[in-house]
Design a protein that fits this description.
Largest sheet: 4 strands, antiparallel
Structural class: alpha+beta
Strand content: 5-15%
Low-confidence stretches: 1-20
CATH topology of the largest domain: ATP12-like fold
Number of domains: 2
Radius of gyration: 22 Å
CATH architecture of the largest domain: Orthogonal Bundle
Length: about 260
């Protein structure tokens, strides 16, 4: 964290703000124009900065199949002012991840999503207090039921933190449900799963069973109950806002699958 010494202090210490050495300075905005153009490959769209294609951290040309999501990336680059801040560019980061981390590694990424189902938020219920138990049942049971019907497998549910293994059929049916997704959509499902703690919620959105607002609300049922009783901390609020920004980008990437 930054701190400053008083200008009248003596000694050899710094007289001005101490910069946080753990965070490198953000790069300055170096371009004027941002445009979406057909990809040179003939499939999808490139994002060009002053006529040059945008590249991923691994130097691959960023190509996006969905024009609406490509426009979202364009809007992020246009919105940068003075410096380029990746924290404010969740769609760009997700598109990069789809190309650099998902393409060519689909089995591993899908495996992570499947593994998350083994400790899915919606499958582990509290034993008390009674009003929270009732709220979990009222909100989560219909979602679990709908996803079970959609994939053709039944999830085991538990009370408390004692681990309960899911049947092999659950893993197999989740994997099948992920097969038809594009690399960008699979990256989005993985991100939603991580942010919500629930493969079930990610599948519910990917299959059009829930709106993005309903997914986000269901994922924060316990947290919102705590806030209603004891209030919200500033740090937790900032973290949740940042997570929601990433979540909304992932939801946008999955919108065409609905």
């Amino acid at each position: 964290m930054s701190e400053s010494n008083k200008s009248g202090s003596k000694g050899g210490g710094p007289k001005g703000p101490i910069k946080d050495s753990l965070r490198p300075p953000l790069p300055k905005r170096f371009y004027e124009n941002v445009a979406r153009v057909p990809a040179a490959s003939g499939n999808g769209f490139e994002i060009q900065l002053d006529g040059r294609p945008l590249r991923t951290p691994l130097k691959r040309i960023l190509v996006i199949d969905d024009p609406a999501f490509a426009d979202l990336v364009v809007s992020e680059w246009r919105a940068q002012s003075g410096v380029i801040d990746p924290a404010t560019m969740p769609a760009t980061r997700l598109a990069n991840s789809a190309i650099d981390a998902v393409a060519g590694h689909r089995a591993a990424v899908a495996g992570e999503v499947v593994a998350y189902a083994g400790s899915d938020l919606l499958c582990y219920r509290t034993a008390s207090p009674a009003n929270l138990v009732a709220e979990q049942c009222r909100t989560w049971d219909p979602i679990v039921d709908a996803v079970e019907a959609a994939i053709g497998a039944r999830f085991m549910r538990a009370e408390g933190v004692m681990h309960v293994a899911q049947p092999p059929a659950v893993a197999a049916r989740i994997a099948t449900a992920l097969d038809g997704l594009s690399d960008l959509q699979l990256a989005a499902v993985q991100l939603i799963t991580t942010l919500t703690g629930s493969t079930i919620l990610a599948l519910a959105y990917a299959k059009g069973l829930l709106t993005a607002d309903a997914v986000w609300k269901a994922a924060h049922l316990d947290e919102d109950w705590q806030i209603a009783h004891w209030g919200r901390g500033e740090e937790a609020e900032a973290r949740r806002a940042a997570n929601e920004r990433d979540f909304r980008a992932a939801a946008a990437a999955l919108a065409p699958s609905h």
